[in-house]
User: Fold these one by one.
Assistant:
Number 1:
Amino acid sequence: MHTVFVTGASGVLGEAIVERLRIHPAVAQIFALAHQSAVPAGIEPAQGDITAETDLGMEARTAEKIRSEATIIIHAAADTRFSAALPEAQHTNVDGTGNLLNFSAACRQQPRVVVLSTVYVAGRRSGVVYENELEHDAGFVNAYEQSKYQAERQVRKHKDELPVTVVRLSTVIGDSEGHVTRLAALHHALRFYYSSLAPMVPGSDTSLVDLVALDYAANAVVHLAVDGFAAGKTYQVCGGMDCLTLREMLDLAFECFLCFRPAWRKRAIEKPAVVPLRTFELFVRSVEEIGDEGLRASVGVLKHFAPQLAYPKQFDDSALRAALPDLSKPVIRELFPRVVRCLIESGWEPTRWSEAQCP
Amino acid sequence: MALSAAQRLMEQSKVPPSEIGAIFYAGAIPQSHVAGACASGNPFNYPVALLQYELELERAMAIGISQVGCMGLNSAVGLARDFLLSNGDAEHVLCVSADVLPCGVKREILYNVISDGACAVLVSRGSERNRLLYRRQVTKGYYWDSVGKKNEIIAAYFPTAQHLIRSTLEGAGVTKEDIRWIIPHNVSRRSWEILLDLVELPMERLFAGNIPRIGHVIAADNWINLRDMMEWNLLRSGDKLLLVNFGFGANWACTVMEY
């Protein structure tokens, strides 16, 4: 039986992971490192801070208990803000990961360590991105990507001394029923599109948009940590071959707006233009120089992640599929409309299955 | 200003006033539709009738055009063409616009510098110069409130203009390569860089010289620019021209002309 220590347990993915660990027959005890937010009910809270070097900021007694009992560590804590400045992102994502690795090394049961990362450590690379690849000099779209890249490099340095594996996540769009528990950049971008505040998106019509369901991602992490752990591996939990192109996504969102809110047709809102990055940046600069707050907010959301679409890439998930051949993944063309529907019907408020009005 | 512009045009064109079948007068703001001083307190006076009287256009039908913002003169020209096509005995339509921003109104509006001005355009049947080949106009009523929906209008401006330009070229049966000049409304130069990127037309074909020189003269830009290009010998016979325009009231228009 396992004792699992989870960081970032109050995050969207962390919460979903903990829910699954709680009912997993091979898990006896769960400790959750919580910073400011409360941890989910039914698990041992361990108040602390991933950025604290000593015992991750936990009380000495709690830290010692975890050090002696943990057999699995899942590191989900991260600063996921795309707009964060690099030093801020590095503080949590790089220093925090370093602290976690040091803490793991001091654990007595030599726990398995699963570090969650992002497929966007590939930054401005284009083409197919394989799971075993990391190093590149293509640059990054935002500090989040860069800091997670640096964190992964740090993990690789520890792989001879720790049984550690990296699980890179793609963009989590919502659960397989379409519910969104916390709005992220993509959801805000869809809202701006719906509200006629998204004039253009950088990229090309054929740029792939890789999206993944929350429950698929959480199931994958739990399986890889508990049931099928393999040290020294990197897995990409992503859409892989099942992706929408940017044009398909814009068209599908448009169809959903019309279908789930028929009165929206009356507005005759145009689909955003798909433009070269240079054109998008020119528009962003104009709005930032003289635009007012409303438009700046829209552009502010788009500018930190949308440029990623100008570097078309496809993420390979062969290793993950080989490791978890039976894990079912929602089809994106079915999942995406469910998410859009829930967003529209909730007025872009977060929803959960039990609270949602959507079927 | 409207009268002065119209008088100069009538003198230069040598068209007798009696041959004008209609006069269309456009103004973007309510004050442009009151002749003389507002201080008279009489809201029922009409500049287009005054123009018809002063210009002695005795056979001309007089109509005012409002609620299309900066697209007033462009709309007038489009309506003039339609008028000539549906009135076989009419030969000419005089289109005039004039706008003066009231004192104290900020002259930077939605990224653009606004100038006062007037312009007159004569639309004639069978004219050999500046032939109107095709015109399209799109109105998107959702954006009717130009202040309340300011941000949405800015966001809608580019994709709507992009689609309109493409469909106008298609409707006119010409390609992007056929267009020798893009004659703009004088909104910010950067917005033209963005829009021309979207439709993949080179900035070199944009007549941008008047943007810093005279600013955005509300409804008159395209036609003042055309006139200046003619005077500065920039145009050659057969040149295809693309006139693009946007006006509050949520109107986009695009016209293909042949010089």
Number 2:
Amino acid sequence: MTSPKRLSQEHQRSLELRLKAGDEHALGELFDLVAPWILGSVLHILHDEDEAEEVVSDVFVQVWRHIHQHDAGRGPLMPWILSIARNRSLDALRRRRRWWRKSAHLEQAHAVDVGAIPPAAPHEAAVPGWPVHREVHAALAALSEEQRRVVLLSYFEGLSHGEIAQRLNQPLGTVKTRLRTAHQRLTESLGHLRDWAE
Amino acid sequence: MTDWLGMLAAPRNPRPDLKGRVLARALAPRRRRGGPLAAAALITLAGGGGGGAWWAYRTIDALTAQRAVLAARVQALEDTVATFIHGPATRLIQIPVSTGGRVGSVTIFADSARHRWLVRCDGLAPNAHDQAYQLWFITERGMSTAAVMPMDEDRPMVMALEMPPGGVLGAAMSIEPRAGSASPSGPMVFHRLL
């Protein structure tokens, strides 16, 4: 695992400013710090290492070319990068002709609950982002099983409300209510996070 | 807040070559689609006012976006530079250099509080196609690379650098192969203890 580094808020802000200033070294630094998390997230959606690396590459190219679109006043850098990674991953997933077959396969292979995404091993705890990783796990574990299931189907498989309802054989209104409630609870639980490596 | 869910998955170390591939792709000059000649040809083919209006719309749109990007970069640079210049722990070192028969300078704003350097190079001669300038930190353990700077154009270069742990005794710059060297092997541009 990447050698541990401690990151201050100031360092993170400096990194962002350097990226905005076109400092190429800053992009290398950003890669060292966040690529393991981005790759982990993308891989969890795509389950294909080669394709995941392609998406990670797309993500960093987009971050580098469009860093000026990130408004630091509206939120930290890492969730912005994670949202790019998720969108890119879901785009890749949708492009696959094997989508439905893969989706059915994934559903069998991975139970849709927190246990399907175990926290990283303890030796990885020194990686920047580890505390956030644990907090996200805890926030998700605090949801009811039904809420957790719809959140994971929505986030990691990119299913629409209707598709989730169909998959779980639940009324659409129930799915929407569970998602709304889950998002409210996650917002309350994770609202204090100011960035990914505090 | 739900964007944080991406942190749910365990981190996964990328294969060693991925970083190089990503940086090469991100930093490669962007291919420009079309261009003035292509646009002119398109207008000729379209042959109508509609084509001209479309071209004008696209051009204005592209220039507006370009201006926004440049404004953001200037703003970020101003922020970075102001942080260095006004920092109470910032030390200014200006080093005259001579490259390719011309006189230039390397200016270092060394911020010992944040352990960062802002380095500005002015008047350096462009490199040969297979060479690059390489900046070195002089430390107690010897020279460690700070940055490899291929310079193909005659323009100033500004970069921010993190200082290595353990402190820096000085700086040096040499001319090295394009990919950089593990230790200085080419002609020395300057060598300066701070």
